[in-house]
Amino acid sequence: MSLSLNPIKPILLVDDEEHFLSSAELVLNSNRITNVETCTDSTKVLELLKSKEYSLVALDLNMPKISGIELLPKILENFPEMPVIVITAINDVENAVECMKLGAFDYLVKPIDDERLISSLNRGIYFASVRNENIRLRETLFKDKLEYPAAFSKIITNSSKMHSIFKYIEAISKTNLPILITGETGVGKELVANAIHKISGREGELVSLNVAGVDDNLFSDTLFGHKKGAFTGADKERRGLIEQAENGSLFLDEIGDLSIESQVKLLRLLQDGKYYPLGSDVAKLSNARIIVATHKDLDKMKNDDTFRKDLYYRLQTHHVNIPPLRERKEDIPILISHFLNTASSALNKKRPASPKELYTSLTNYSFPGNVRELEGIIFDAVSRHISGILSI
Q: Is there a contact between 130 and 174 (Cβ–Cβ < 8 Å)?
């Protein structure tokens, strides 16, 4: 895993050599891992770990006062789920191997290669992210009440299925990993993407792109941007959507329609966290969270070789499937009432009285176009209504 993941909880680097800490922090910052704290006094490590939560600890084994070899068992005893990466000198590998047997997550040998450092920390961050997500998932699914109900305010529902999905969304929204949203046309996938972004706490924007019908050249230019003179007509530099989504989320709708060539570029972005604007040979880094959606069966497309398997498995780390309206008919009455209100307000009309049979007939309808179709039916009826009982 080469993508640099900036953790929500900080990394703690422990080494008595300040120049090493400064150098390591510089390498991490240049790879967009900026949530880093350092400590030169090994006697303060346990106190720090008790005072706040960290994603992982990188611990030098050879330090004065309390050595890393002595400190490691204490950390693992008090914080058994904490990934600890031990750092050792080239002539002390045997101790590092012994630490691995005790439960260390990984070991690094000084002088540390930059790519090896980033790779090890990324794996540790990923491990910690999955571990924390599992904890959140267990805690969230056992709760009846939502933690962020306001985030779902635009999704009108009384469905227990949807409530369970909301709780799952709350559990996964704060991770850095991509999210795949599936469901038939009209179920509200974009509303779900908005809810995920709101709960994530990311400071940047939610930037959206519908990729249906977008060819590879347009996809590259729209997503990654271009330098001035990159092609005929490129009179000035253009920022891509991925740059606009800095510190935020990028939502790619209709991902099942993305060309194979564009799938390769999206996969590279997810793997490396880097991209090249058209006409540039200098890579830019991205920390945007990727959310994708489709109404297509990506599993079948994967087996038919119309969607890349490696991209599929990377995207479906977190999978949110929205059930069609016909599978949550308890939502139809409340949606009818909601759309009657919004249609009347939008059309500057008094809300019409609705016949009792309206709810019965619509509840028995299969709604192939789902919530969007129901909204259209109600808006059309209200726009045609003049007086008396509403007629569909």
A: no
Burial letters for 198-213: b for 16+ Cβ neighbours within 10 Å, e otherwise?
bbbebebbbbbbebee
* Confidence band for 119, pLDDT divided at 50, 70 and 90: confident
Please check the confidence at residue 312 and state whether its pLDDT lies above 90.
Answer: yes
Q: How far apart are CA 304 and CA 310, in angstroms?
A: 14
Q: For the chain, which domains are there? A: 11-135 (3.40.50.2300), 143-323 (3.40.50.300), 326-384 (1.10.8.60)
**Of residues 136 and 147, more confidently modeled:** 147
| DSSP state letters, 166-218 | HHHHHHHTTSSS-EEEE--TTS-HHHHHHHHHHHHT-SS-EEEEE-TT--HHH
**Cβ(214)–Cβ(261) under 8 Å?**
no
Give pLDDT tens digits for 86-111.
Answer: 998 866 778 878 888 888 999 898 88
Structure-block tokens of residue 61? 């084994």
Whole-number mean pLDDT of the chain?
90
Q: Encode pLDDT of 345-363 as tens digits.
A: 999 999 998 888 888 889 9
Cα separations in angstroms, 282 against 172, 270, 276, 278: 33, 18, 6, 10
pLDDT value of position 34: 87
Within 276-331, where are the H helices? 298-303, 309-315
Distance between CA atoms of residues 107 and 72, nearest Å? 12
Residues in the chain: 392
- What is the DSSP secondary-structure string of 101-145? HHT-SEEEESSPPHHHHHHHHHHHHHHHHHHHHHHHHHHHHT-SS
Residue 139 confidence class, pLDDT cut points 50, 70, 90: low
Looking up tokens 């005929």, which residue turns up?
232
